Amino acid sequence: MSDIGRRRAARAAADDPAYTEKVMAIREAAVRVFRAKGLRVASLNDVAEEVGMSRASLYYYVGSKEELFRDVVSEAVTANIESAQKVVAQPLPASRKLARLIELLMESFERHFPYLYVFVQEDFSKIGGDTETATGSWETTIREWNQQYFDLVKQVVAEGIADGDLRTALPAGVIANCVIGMTNSSHAWFRPNGLMDASEIGAGMAQMVLTGLQPETRP
């Protein structure tokens, strides 16, 4: 570990309020930069300029833009996976589980705004191979996160199709991708404190999806 790394770790371990406040300011600045420029184009110089400090000073708090990106998104993404796991484990009809997954994801976008959107708007397949984000453990972590959440949604849809609670000519995996894609695309238009809050939008989305997946009524 470098001298800067050791000093940063020591200050973090000391639970220094001033250090914590500065870290939060850096993360908020990083979110603005990542949203505006994307991870591939953004640089630590951009973040330093946004937060109003030199790049040399920034290195006392963060080692790389990839490390900073992880710090910004990891809590929100892992919280979504944990919430989805709890929904899947509940003794509810698949239709209600699917609705709850949609509602919770929209609520998370509002609660973690705009941190979570920084993650969903990135196309990680296009990030250059010279960065840590495109290789090694971080790429593996991203893929695992995405796969975990997808598998949970797909599991709910498959259960609903199997027990007749959901009707569709599409495979469960396609439905899962449609649901996730629909909610993720809200990064282009959703803002907190708008005409509708995230709970209302999530409920409306769930109703729209489930109306198209209702089993046929028999005379």
Write a brief structural summary.
This protein has 219 residues and is mainly alpha-helical. The chain has helices at residues 3-13, 17-37, 44-51, 55-58, 65-89, 94-111, 115-120, 136-163, 172-184, 198-211.
Strand content: under 5%
Shape: elongated
| Contiguous helical run count | 10
- The portion of residues assigned to helices is 55-70%
Mean pLDDT: 87
Major sheet characteristics:
none
What series of H and E elements makes up the topology? HHHHHHHHHH
Helix and strand content put the structural class at mainly alpha
State the distance separating the first and last CA atoms: 72 Å
Low-pLDDT ranges: 127-135
* Computed Rg: 20 Å
What is the β-strand count? 0
Describe this structure in words.
There is one protein chain. With 219 residues, the chain is mostly helical. The chain contains ten helices and no strands. The longest helix is centred in the C-terminal third of the chain and has 28 residues, at 136-163. It starts with a helix and ends in an 8-residue tail after the last helix.
Task: Break the fold down into its secondary structure elements and pairings.
Elements: H1 3-13, H2 17-37, H3 44-51, H4 55-58, H5 65-89, H6 94-111, H7 115-120, H8 136-163, H9 172-184, H10 198-211
Q: What brief labels describe this structure?
A:
mainly alpha; 219 residues; 10 helices; elongated
